Amino acid sequence: MKLNLKIWRQKGPNDKGSMVSYPIENIDGDMSFLEMLDILNDQLVEKGDDPVAFDHDCREGICGMCSLYINGEAHGPDRGITTCQLHMRKFNDGDTIYIEPWRAKAFPVIKDLMVDRSAFDRIMAAGGFVSVNTSGNTQDANAIPIPKDDADEAFNAATCIGCGACVASCVNSSAMLFVSAKVSQLALLPQGQIEAMDRVKNMVAVMDEEGFGNCSNTGACEVECPKEISLENIARMNREFLKASFVK
Amino acid sequence: MSKSVLLKSSLAKKYWMALTGLFLCLFLVGHLAGNLQLLKAGEEGRRAFNEYAYFMAHNPVVKILSYLTYISIIFHVIDGFLLFAQNRKARPVKYAHTRPQENSSFASRNMALLGTLILVFIVTHMQNFWYKAKISNGPFPLHTLVKEIDNQEYDPATGAIVNKKQDVKLYLLTNGQYQMIDLEDKDNIELRHNTEIYSKKLDVKVAEGYKDLHSLTTAFFGHDNSKYGFPKNDLATVAVIFYVVSMLVLIFHLWHGFSSAFQSLGLRSKKYAPIIITVGKIFAVVVPVLFAVIPVYLYLTK
Q1: Is the pLDDT of residue B106 over 70?
Q2: For A10-36, how does the pLDDT look when each residue is reduced to its tens digit (9 = 90+)?
Q3: How far apart are CA B260 and CA B21, in angstroms?
């Protein structure tokens, strides 16, 4: 397969950056998208050029490290996958492929296609946890009965890998799907109830501080999310936040 | 309740957007119910519409609702622009290539644009009807009926009594009667607050008429109501087209807005989402279409 890649190159956070074209040949349909980029980087290194910087880690769709806005969509044209799970067979010989970093004020570019997603970490630190006493006599989690439906729904929310595709896809760069998944996974369980009100208020406050946009319910995040996190989580967060704002 | 959270946070802005939006949906229903009376033909329809308009202008509950409507519109607009500005700022560098049509609807991504177009319509609409009916000073033509009656007159030339046809102007009064009143008789009769007829000598309100808003409206959409004081609008064609296009814009705005309001308020769940979405889509189409039918009907029956 012969492709024409158009890749965002940016030397550092303060560089202006631009799209650069890279023709590439002999790409197999069974390669993953990241393998294709590895091949490009090998060629660039051989020529003595600076390789394209991009985030990746587990390469099996569970770590949330890989990103990339491919041909106008987060994680490329396929659904329910991360970029590392995207195969080159989804493209045709001779295609032009645009590869850009996540675009959001809260996700500044570090280099080329790598962005700083530590804003998500700061949101998590504000309340995305349950405080558990680890003195050695911790209660077994299974000792607390939880309805299967609630457990399933909490688990679905917990599958969020924090990749940031929701922010990247959103026309408003809103982080609502991410934050709502993190709020929901705990709000649905008894262990999460104790800190529920502070959690939602603090996480939303940090989300706003970080400069993410406001949700306008377009639903783009749900469609592009590699873990197919549901919009219902956002409704749940809105509910939790409203309740917390009135009570506390 | 922490005040700042319910005013300033990103979620609060959405709550206000949703609450004012849903209130305006209710307003649309009320407004439509009144407008539909314009489809009633003849004097009966004219009377029904003007009586309804009188009720709307004088009922205290309606007055409160109308102020809530003004506030909702202003809040919805300001909040909407604030959200739009913040959302633009959240992505300073745009994508070189993007395919939003793959993951979201046109309406959902362009609520600010659609809303602005609706605002333009509201401004012109208020200028054309609300301002003329409520604010602008000067006498407003009242609901009158011109009736032809037989009048016997003495002809001094021939000395005979002849039958002559004569037009008389009858005023529809709030007591439900049509009555002949000579408003030109400035010595005895005075018109106050546009519609109230006072006896000058007694300084007492003797009757009250109706503003002829029906004739104002039908003239605007092409009817020739010169005899009631409203000549036909030369730009009626433009007015009708603009109205219909604006209602089309409203369909898109409501298509996303209605169910979106429930999502923002956290009222959406797996159980109710399909109902809310279906009701929202039906509402989004039916209400604007019924609104648009009225000027088109008036234009075609001119």
Answers
A1: yes
A2: 999 999 999 999 999 999 999 999 999
A3: 10
Q: Quick check: A232 and B273 CB within 8 A?
A: yes
What residues in chain A have per-residue pLDDT under 50? none
Q: List chain B domain ranges.
A: 3-138+217-224+229-300, 144-209
Distance of alpha carbon A240 from alpha carbon A187, whole angstroms: 8
Distance (Å) from the C-alpha of residue A246 to the closest C-alpha of chain B?
Answer: 4
Closest-CA distance, B297 to chain A, in angstroms, reads 36
Query: Could you say which of 1.10.940.10, 3.90.190.20, 3.10.20.30, 1.10.357.10 is the CATH number of the domain covering A3-111?
Result: 3.10.20.30
Q: Tell me the mean pLDDT in the region B92-119.
A: 96
* Å between B31 CA and nearest CA of chain A: 27
Which residues share a beta bridge with A74?
A69
Read off the pLDDT of residues B135-145 as tens digits, 9 standing for 90 and up.
776 678 888 88
Given this model, what pLDDT does residue B4 score? 60
Task: Find the CB nearest B86 among A201, A214, A219.
Answer: A214
**Residue B284 pLDDT > 70:** yes
Domain ranges of chain A: 3-111, 117-247
Residue from the list A213, A234, A245 with its beta carbon closest to the beta carbon of B87: A213
Which ipTM value was assigned to this complex?
A: 0.92
Which of A103, A235, A242 minimises the CB distance to B93? Answer: A103
- The answer to whether residue B113 scores a pLDDT higher than 80 is yes
CA atoms of A200 and A183, how far apart (whole Å): 6
Predicted local confidence at residue B1, as pLDDT = 42
Question: What is the C-alpha separation between A75 and A69, in angstroms, rounded?
Answer: 6
- The answer to whether A73 contacts B103, with C-beta atoms less than 8 Å apart, is yes
CATH placement of domain A117-247: 1.10.1060.10
Q: Cβ of B89 and A218 within 8 Å? A: no
Gyration radius of chain B over CA positions: 25
Using an 8 Å CB-CB cutoff, list chain A residues near B262.
235
Contact status, residue B181 vs residue B197, Cβ threshold 8 Å: yes
Report whether B245 contacts B16 (CB < 8 A).
no
Topology of domain B3-138+217-224+229-300, CATH: 3 helical TM bundles of succinate and fumarate reductases (1.20.1300)
